[in-house]
Amino acid sequence: MLSLLLISVILIPAQEVNAGSSFVGLGFLPGASVDVSRALGVSADGSVIVGFATNSNGDTEAFRWTSGDDMVGLGFLPSASDDDSRARAASADGSVIVGSATNSNGNFEAFRWTQGGGMVPLGFLPSASVDNSFALGVSADGSVIVGIATNSNGDLEAFRWTSGDDMVGLGFLPSASVDSSRGEDVSADGSVITGVGRDSNNNFEAFRWTSGDGMVGLGSLPGASSDRSVGRAISADGSVIVGDATNSFGGSEAFMWTSGDDMVGLGFLPGVSLDEDTVAFGVSADGSVIVGEALNSNDDTEAFMWTPGGGMVPLGFFPGASDDDSQAQDVSADGSVIVGFSTNSNGDPEAFMLTIPRIPVGGTIVPIDTTALLLAGAQTFSWMIPVIVSAIGIGIVIARKF
Known about the structure:
- This protein is an all-beta fold.
- It folds into 2 domains: 1-21 and 365-402, no CATH class; 25-364, TolB, C-terminal domain (Neuraminidase, 6 Propeller), CATH 2.120.10.
- It is 0% helix and 51% strand.
- A hairpin with a 6-residue loop joins strand 23 (278-283) and strand 24 (290-295).
- The protein starts with a strand and ends with a strand.
- The model is unreliable at 1-21 and 358-402 (pLDDT under 50).
């Protein structure tokens, strides 16, 4: 019996092929009272994965995962009134991890974690009316941290933290009807920040911030039924921003923004209507690989990978999953390691890592347009096989049965 498969091919040099690539569950914290884990970030080199999971006491605890040590809890803030911590992002080599955790007063406070120093609180905005702060992104060397905190007026404001200046508010969009902004991610050198704020019409609008230009709104998708956009991730040099925005059909569509092309919609998974939702959460260093979540033709939330030549490709689910639900949250600098979480065969949300063959530094990804082929006997939910496609290299075929 023939099975129709959706195929996307990426050419890489033959010597770089790794035929053992697979969708891998990262498991749970040791002795977990409930099997729950969610991966939210990955280091640029793909070696360290961070997120949060339930521990042996039933508390939510930030974790760091490596292939050598598996999943290790990062603990909590000193004298925390309630044990709750969540890691959100990691520096390029994974040595610095940022997130938020409850402090001794029961408020959430941004933290910076290192192996030597442990979990260190970053404080709050000056004269904050409420002591709350959340770290959401970190620069390559771990010296610049961005996020959201309550300011002296009780408004939520994007911040930029450095060891020299501590936490500094980034302000709001010009003529904002409501003072509200959130810093989501930061470029490798810490100079460019993306996030979301309220515009003059009280709509959410993605922004790009630099010290020279301040907070600049990125607009909305062409013909949008409503002006709503959210910036969620940024490329290493700050030139590419991804997120989601309302499109002309009223749905939420993943987008890519560049200074040359402004905001461009990334489309949808095959076989779905144009008002279904897609959201981009992560982008590779050069902006060529984007990951996120989308509704598929069965109305399930499914992780996706997008490339300029291949478009939006579904990544599937855990084999034997009790419920088809997966989300891709981040991707390594070279686009070879994708992390997120998905429902497993026991019905539990479990962190995952999907590895595709590594592109050598300085190499080039040559995308081939998505093609439909007839192949026999495919049983795997989502898989990769190496095939010879030309004399210059090997194609890695990402296939999904339907």
